[in-house]
Design a protein that fits this description.
This protein is α+β, with helices and mostly antiparallel strands. Helix content is 41%, strand content 19%. The C terminus is likely disordered.
Length: 136
């Protein structure tokens, strides 16, 4: 698997789509992203909130926007991935498996109240923020 880089993203999606995607990324329009194996999934705010996913191995992708993929939403998601803010699902699952039932209930209740939950999973977790997909 070739490493993901800005140059590879430009090569795959073109300069104009990259420029638009970088603008989305810089404006904080990637609301949340998850990595599960080699599949990156996330929500990006455009005219609506779109769900995008991309395979990190070949950069094949889909988006719920009118283009259906190969769009600025996918580029923004990939740039978010490069920023290392993505939630690694297998690692998160491993951390949650170490928690008691009562701790898990507390985490769920606090998440319902729209609080950040990753710090509740591991207090010293830095650099990863779980944001509501409803954020403006």
């Amino acid at each position: 698997m070739m490493p993901i880089s800005e140059d590879r993203i430009i090569e795959r999606f073109g300069r104009e789509t990259f420029r638009k995607g970088k603008d989305y990324y810089n404006k904080g329009k990637v609301l949340i992203a998850f990595l599960d194996g080699g599949l990156l999934q996330g929500y990006v705010k455009g005219k609506r909130v779109y769900k995008a996913n991309v395979s990190l191995s070949g950069l094949s992708n889909k988006c719920s926007c009118p283009l259906g993929g190969n769009c600025e939403h996918v580029v923004a998601l990939l740039l978010f991935y490069l920023s290392d803010e993505v939630i690694d699902i297998p690692k998160l699952r491993e951390k949650l498996m170490k928690r008691s039932k009562d701790e898990l209930i507390d985490i769920i209740l606090k998440a319902v109240k729209e609080e950040e939950i990753l710090p509740l999973v591991e207090k010293d977790e830095n650099g990863i923020k779980l944001s509501s997909i409803l954020r403006a």
